[in-house]
Amino acid sequence: MRSCVLLLSAGLFMTSLLGCSKGDRPDIAFASGRVTLDGNPVEGASVSFEPVNGGRPCSGMTDADGVYKITSYEPFDGAPVGDHNVAIIKISGEGSAVPAGEDPTMSLSNISGPGAEKKDEKQPETIYLVPRKYGSVKTSNLKVTVPSGGSSELNFELTAR
After folding, report:
1. CB–CB of 67/32 below 8 Å?
2. Which of 2.40.128.110, 3.20.20.150, 2.40.240.10, 2.60.40.10 is the CATH number of 25-97+122-161?
3. What pLDDT digit, counting tens, does each position of 35-59 carry?
4. pTM score, two decimals?
């Protein structure tokens, strides 16, 4: 009986390892390029690829030359092969420290009881160093196709207009 339990446990362990194998992942190819704004390299921007057909988004950060390398699962492994919508964001100011989608005024200590009026609190300032429209795949109009052989020429030439 004990050997059956050990065999069953070993089988479940191996099955769980297979479930986390690279075989469950889409085909990944090296994806890199350069981001410029009005011809100048953009340092410290986040570049995000969102697969058009669904799946896990991936991202990278630009260096001093505006060069980024996308990471999906392991550092700089690339992006799923195929079409992606792209967002590029670089922000500063007090509002840049607030996690996306989180209202800085909403904490348990700031929630008023029934009938209480909301105070006019000033929101932390967020400064968009890359125009705000590029910060969302819904508004950026940026698209890229990652070829099966990978590419280091997936460049984005942004404009401040």
Report:
1. yes
2. 2.60.40.10
3. 999 999 999 999 999 999 999 999 9
4. 0.71
